[in-house]
Amino acid sequence: MKILLALIAAAITTPSLAQTPATSATPSLIPDIPRSTTVLDALRSAGPVMVPLFLLSIFFVMLVVVYLMTIRRGAVVSSGFMATADALLRKRDYLGLLAVSNRHGEAIARVVQKMLDFTTKNPNADFGQVREIAETEGSRVAASLNNRVTYLADIGMIAPLLGLLGTVFGIITSFGALGADVGSARYIALSRGISQALVNTATGLAIGIPAMVFYAFFRGRSQRLISDLESATTHILALLSLQFEKRIERTPVLIEDEL
Questions:
Q1: 205: which residues sit within 8 A by CB, 6+ positions away?
Q2: pLDDT: which is higher, 2 or 43
Q3: pTM
Q4: Do residues 90 and 239 touch, judged by C-beta distance below 8 A?
């Protein structure tokens, strides 16, 4: 009986002893692969192209903030300035309107300032010359708005190209890993190259797509503001033309009185 119990005990303890070396040897077969635990770690390990992409993203955010504050109707045409300009032009108070234009920073104020500065310095100038001054300054302001918005389009094209360059670097790293010795290091290098390629591609698109979206938004806004500027300039020129016509009508009367 004692011999039977000893055999049963040996049969129960033998598998556990046989499994002990296997379980202890299993962790040694698994390579210690470093893994990116956060998105920031993945971006840091994505290669040197991430540096210009990071700088480009900062520049993109700064442009969007500046354009939100400057490309708006209050910065181009304001109702307060137009009401003041209308009242002063009807009174023929050119010097007062010139002083008001110097204090305002709107685009229409710069156009009026150029016109009145030319008119006050050349009192014998005709209306055609004044209109040419207004059209030239208005075209300059419109070109400035359009040129500023195109920076976003440039970012939208450059960012995906930089991401593609990083993708090429990652693929080169992956193909270089294929020539390494067979083992865990080969697969680690291959996975790192593929990760680098995908992270660069995703980062370039993540910057380029919003840049093109904001470019379309600000382009439409700038076109509307340019139309408002043209309308306001036409209104100012119409009031000035009335003043020029009155001056022409008074001139023959003064000549007759002198005769």
A1: 159, 160, 163
A2: 43
A3: 0.71
A4: yes
